[in-house]
């Protein structure tokens, strides 16, 4: 969907599984029904549970199955399952309870829909008490309150990502001769860990000259996402930027800005490379993308959970060399900042190459094509 000015380059090598994954609904395995293992019904399973259905997860699904192959799970009598969720906390709670009743599940990677939801955390802890290995991916729990509900986190450093996006937005506004003004951020759930961190980071990146006017939640409802943008433009005629925090927010913003003919009024930036956001940028209706690496997140999740189940401390140490130290339980993946091919004030030299991989839209589109992906 600048992301933490620290998300190293993006080196995904998506396999042909992506094509299959992109054509299946979230929660369905290639050639199977929701919840069925990819390689058969026997043996032990590692499960990935998403938060909200969205094409963003297509790349993660592909990475999860690529991880199954890369880390030789079938040879170890193991398989993976990719589970959807209905976009509600209760949906995740119900799924986690189901997992607890299935003795073949030995590892769970979850993207919690709400960082502070005590009921979700309780079910995560129940799984741990039953001997199931639990990690978070993409979204984390509130680390101050619930860190013990999972062993490790894999994903973007969302605060730094937000700072990077804020810095990019500031540069775009400067090119429009706008040195101050108000902006609005749009997200599925303001209580999500990644959403909150990204929005806080954007605020820091834009600085005190710009007002964080509102943070509008849509509950994962894409119709509501568009309605929020309409309300923002109607109620705030001084807005200078609209910022999408979750993958589908970008297309929602671009669609409404186009229908309202407000493109000259606002800068439009978003996280993730949803298919609609890519097309909006191609048409000149979107100024910047901050793209994560869900493929690698999910692939590394398989490696980690397998190592945890097998008590392979060497692999765990390799992935988390600072384990036991502050934030030593966090593995950050890479980000890309993507700009239009022409007429963009964003340039590669603006960003720390050790934290951000800068590219133009044609390069991103070619990478997606090479890996049989439509979004990332």
Key terms for this structure?
376 residues; alpha/beta; Rossmann fold; 7-stranded mixed sheet; 6-stranded parallel sheet; 13 helices; 13 strands; disordered N terminus; Peripla_BP_I
Kindly describe this structure.
The chain has two domains: 44-156 and 294-332, Response regulator (Rossmann fold); 158-291 and 335-371, 3-Layer(aba) Sandwich (Rossmann fold). Helices cover 39% and strands 18% of the residues. The chain has helices at 17-22, 56-70, 89-100, 118-129, 143-146, 158-175, 193-206, 222-235, 249-259, 275-282, 294-310, 313-319, 361-370, and strands spanning 44-49, 78-83, 105-110, 133-137, 153-155, 181-187, 210-217, 239-244, 267-271, 288-291, 330-332, 336-339, 357-360. The protein has a seven-stranded mixed beta sheet with strand order 7-6-8-9-10-12-13, with helices on both faces. It starts with 16 loop residues before the first helix and ends in a 6-residue tail after the last helix. Mean pLDDT is 90; it is low at 1-41.
């Amino acid at each position: 969907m600048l992301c933490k000015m620290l998300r190293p380059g993006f080196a995904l090598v998506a396999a042909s599984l992506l094509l299959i994954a992109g054509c299946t609904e979230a929660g369905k395995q290639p050639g199977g029904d929701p919840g069925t293992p990819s390689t058969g019904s026997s043996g032990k399973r590692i499960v990935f549970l998403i938060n909200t259905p969205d094409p963003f997860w297509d790349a993660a699904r592909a990475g999860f199955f690529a991880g199954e192959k890369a880390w030789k799970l079938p040879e170890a009598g193991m398989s993976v399952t990719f589970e959807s969720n209905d976009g509600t906390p209760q949906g995740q709670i119900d799924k986690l309870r189901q997992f607890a009743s299935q003795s073949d599940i030995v590892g769970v990677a979850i993207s919690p829909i709400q960082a502070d939801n005590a009921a979700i955390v309780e079910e995560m802890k129940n799984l741990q008490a039953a001997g199931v290995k639990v990690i978070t991916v993409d979204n984390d729990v509130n680390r101050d309150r619930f860190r013990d509900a999972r062993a490790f986190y894999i994903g973007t450093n969302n605060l730094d990502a937000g700072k990077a996006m804020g810095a990019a937005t500031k540069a775009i506004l400067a090119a429009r001769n706008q040195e101050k003004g108000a902006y609005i951020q749009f997200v599925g759930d303001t209580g999500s860990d990644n959403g909150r961190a990204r929005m806080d980071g954007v605020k820091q990146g834009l600085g005190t000259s710009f007002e964080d006017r509102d943070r509008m939640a849509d509950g994962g409802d894409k119709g509501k996402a568009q309605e929020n943008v309409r309300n923002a433009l109607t109620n705030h005629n001084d807005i200078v930027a609209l910022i999408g925090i979750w993958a589908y927010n970008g297309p929602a913003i671009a669609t409404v800005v186009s229908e309202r003919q407000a493109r000259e009024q606002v800068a439009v930036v978003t996280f993730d490379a949803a298919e609609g956001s890519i097309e909006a940028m191609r048409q000149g209706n979107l100024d910047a993308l901050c793209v994560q690496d869900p493929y690698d997140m999910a692939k590394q999740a398989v490696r980690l959970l397998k190592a945890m189940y097998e008590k392979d401390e060497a692999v765990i140490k390799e992935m988390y060399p600072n384990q036991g130290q502050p934030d030593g339980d966090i593995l950050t993946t890479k980000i890309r900042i993507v700009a239009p091919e022409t007429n963009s004030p964003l340039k590669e030299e603006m960003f720390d190459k050790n934290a951000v991989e800068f590219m133009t839209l044609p390069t991103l589109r070619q990478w997606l094509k090479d890996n049989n992906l439509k979004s990332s």
